[in-house]
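Researcher: Next entry in the queue.
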Amino acid sequence: MRALTVEPLKAGSAKVRDVPDPSAGPGEMLVEGLALGICGTDREIAAGEYGWAPPDRDRLVLGHESLGRVRTAPPDSGFAPGDLVVGVVRRPDPVPCGACGHGEFDMCRNGRYTERGIKEIDGYGSQAWTVETAYAVKLDPRLERVGALMEPTTVVAKAWEQVEKVGARSWFEPRRVLVTGAGPIGLLAALLGVQRGLEVHVLDLATDGPKPETVKALGAEYHANGLGEVAARARPDVIIEATGVSSLVFEAMASTAAYGIVCLTGVSPVGRKISVDVGAANRDMVLENDAVVGSVNANLLHYASAAAALAEADPDWLARLITRRLPLDRYIEALESRQDDIKVVLDLTA
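Model: Structure for this entry, 350 residues:
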């Protein structure tokens, strides 16, 4: 079978190669690969910035945003041939730490977790793959053309969970949320905000292309002006920051209503310096009881929440997020970031 592989830490090593067909072991399913979402993590691994091959191997099968159809499943597993499924990305560390031991491997304390397509386990970027039934999630059959959005939806499902847990420290009845960034994470965060009945605002730089109309079609308000101006008008109770732009991160911390919560989901590049009045930021956060929390990855509960959110969503709206769909052989194009991209998906069947 064919698979998208990379030699970690070696830029330009991404290549579609023939690899052995997988064979399901005890407790595993054999899955036909249907589609693979491409994100910034995949691009960074392909650029040689990080990534870990499986032990005693030079190359890693890339891809963690999976979508597949079950070919074979163990009896009484809850899965059957034909089911639409995704595979969970992270696996708990072998020790395990306290968090992993309680099923919260997204919060691993010692860093010894592994991840499909990223760290020490082959990913889902192949025409067939296997997955343990305990780390697979069934999707509504109506989501076949958009199911590759599942993994990024788990990330924002966790982000919203974190916001609500922090909010629960006292009376919490948010009305307005501002999402910074209209990429896949930002738009899916906005979707979950709308599903919660909130007034949703989305801020991005784009003034044309698919992003403004996609936000409007969700019933949210789109903005392309400065964060300060938008926040002064909207007075958000919650800000979900999905760009990783350092200046926006710090501006967001000062832009919520009193007792506001900022959830950081974007990863900032290192080495860039900005001037920040830390004293003013500290003063505002203390006097207004504000909170800032970082969030990344997801555990099985977040996968279940994400599957429910996608099943509730309009599939036609979700399809707007996939702005390029390419066959596997055009992986080089998929790994290129373009200005109008929202989500790029590789078709593993073409």
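Model: The first helix runs from residue 40 to 46.
Researcher: Noted, moving on.
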